[in-house]
Write a structure and sequence with these properties.
Layout (H helix, E strand, L loop, with lengths): L8 E7 L6 H17 L1 E7 L4 H12 L7 E4 L6 H11 L3 E4 L5 H7 L9 E5 L3 H19 L6 E7 L5 H15 L4 E8 L4 H14 L5 E4 L2 H13 L9 E5 L3 H8 L5 E4 L4 H13 L10 E2 L5 E2 L2 H10 L29 H4 L1
Parallel strand pairs: 1-2, 1-3, 3-4, 4-5, 5-11, 6-7, 6-8, 8-9, 9-10
Antiparallel strand pairs: 10-12
Length: about 350
């Protein structure tokens, strides 16, 4: 698809989250910064954590007289195939971001550009790696801070049972845990990504299993809820009970900087912005297909205390305008051989 260089184009993003939710707020701000620099008109519609609403929003967009040039979708709560097929029937090119289709869904939907001709491809973070990185960093920190030979009793606070980001993070974390002789999994529970639910579950679990001394959380909100539960149970978060989290919210970065979070992984909030870079290149005749249709780059990395401090300085108040998005585009940089979408590239 070749267009003239000056033409702006339109992208509608169906966000699965709440408008004021820390993660989706930062993801959308990063997308907006990318869109402004790449001359993309970005529209964001929020489904407010309702998968049925996600599908309804896509349906409404497909019925417009003036349809967007592209739809950007997320396979949250496994709603991906329903949205992709609606877009395909309406002839709107669409791209999947943040969550891939599961192997079972791919069996039915086929690969991008096959049965669903208008499904261009997907860009998804390495969630299994985020799970394993944070579990490993948490266990390493425990071996540094606790007396040698201390038995490690791990509580895993997962997101939900179906979203690929959730299941892959659990998988990655469990693989590391299985190879650690002095660490045992006390319980795996689902906090549905919410701090209040995590706190309620945490209070009960800490009463039932007072030996818990490590908490692995699949996002930051649940880690914050667990911190409150730990406090209410008379223990100290970051001292007697160590926690890990995943995300880049200002509070998560502050707590990593101050060592209240023993481990943190971040970077995937940029997935939507990176997806816009790929659509920008595709729109201008530089098809990302040369690197694959289901891209799965290393987007996550663990965040050191120093990196957390640097992130807070560079991106205060979710302001990502300082990132030069054009430098990541192959259309804007013909010499660029491969896309480089890692977290550390943001801090340079």
């Amino acid at each position: 698809m070749l267009h003239n260089q000056a033409a702006a184009f339109t992208v509608t993003f169906i966000s699965p989250g709440h408008q004021n939710e820390a993660f989706w707020l930062s993801a959308v701000r990063a997308m907006q910064a990318a869109a402004d620099q790449l001359d993309i008109q970005l529209e964001v519609l929020s489904a407010e954590r309702d998968p049925v609403q996600m599908v309804k929003l896509v349906q409404a967009v497909t019925q417009r007289r003036r349809k967007p040039d592209y739809l950007l979708l997320v396979n949250e709560k496994l709603a991906g195939p329903a949205m992709l097929s609606l877009a395909d029937q309406a002839g709107i090119p669409c791209f999947l971001s943040f969550n891939p289709l599961t192997p079972a869904q791919l069996q039915t939907s086929g690969l991008p550009r096959q049965r669903l001709k208008y499904w261009l491809g997907s860009l998804t973070p390495d969630n299994a790696m985020a799970g394993s990185q944070t579990m490993k960093a948490l266990l390493d920190e425990a071996s540094r801070r606790f007396p040698p030979g201390t038995p490690l009793h791990v509580l895993m606070m997962a997101g939900d049972r179906s979203t690929p980001a959730s299941t892959l993070r659990i998988e990655g974390a469990r693989q590391i845990l299985a190879t650690t002789p002095n660490a045992t999994l006390t319980q795996l529970v689902y906090g549905e990504w919410e701090s209040k639910r995590a706190m309620q579950q945490g209070i009960w679990l800490l009463q039932r299993y007072p030996q818990i001394n490590l908490v692995w959380a699949a996002n930051d909100e649940m880690a914050f809820g667990m911190e409150e539960a730990i406090r209410q149970s008379g223990k100290q978060a970051g001292k007697t009970v160590l926690l890990s989290a995943i995300n880049n919210s200002p509070r998560a970065m502050q707590e990593r900087r101050d060592d209240k979070l023993a481990a943190l992984a971040a970077g995937h909030f940029m997935t939507g912005a990176w997806s816009l870079v790929l659509l920008y290149d595709y729109h201008h005749g530089h098809d990302f297909a040369s690197e694959g249709l289901q891209l799965h780059p290393t987007i996550f990395s663990t965040v050191s205390r120093q990196q957390a401090q640097r992130f807070l300085q560079l991106f205060a108040d979710n302001d990502y305008k300082g990132i030069r998005f054009r430098q990541f585009s192959k259309f804007a940089n013909p010499a660029l051989q491969r896309y480089a979408f890692g977290f550390s590239t943001l801090l340079n």
